[in-house]
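ok so I'm stuck.
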Amino acid sequence: MSFEFYGIITLLTIGSVIGQALLKYSSVKNNNYYIFATVIYLIIAIILFKLYKTHNFIEIAVWRSALALILYLLIGFFYFKEKILFNQMIGILLLFC
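replied:
not stuck anymore, here's the structure
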């Protein structure tokens, strides 16, 4: 796997997390930011479609999942002021084992 692969996966994951954050923000503030999230997810789907032609599903899924979990936890904690539960912390620690 190349540096380019990791860069693309990182950008896709960050885009996905931004999309999720926009959906959460839209549901809390009752605004139309969900439209931006939809556009972000459409772009991600197109890029993933092209990426699946050259890489295995499992290698993409593992990297995106691990990175996304960490980013979701950080955004939830710092931006939405959600508490980090013990089982969530154990799950994050297990990612590094």
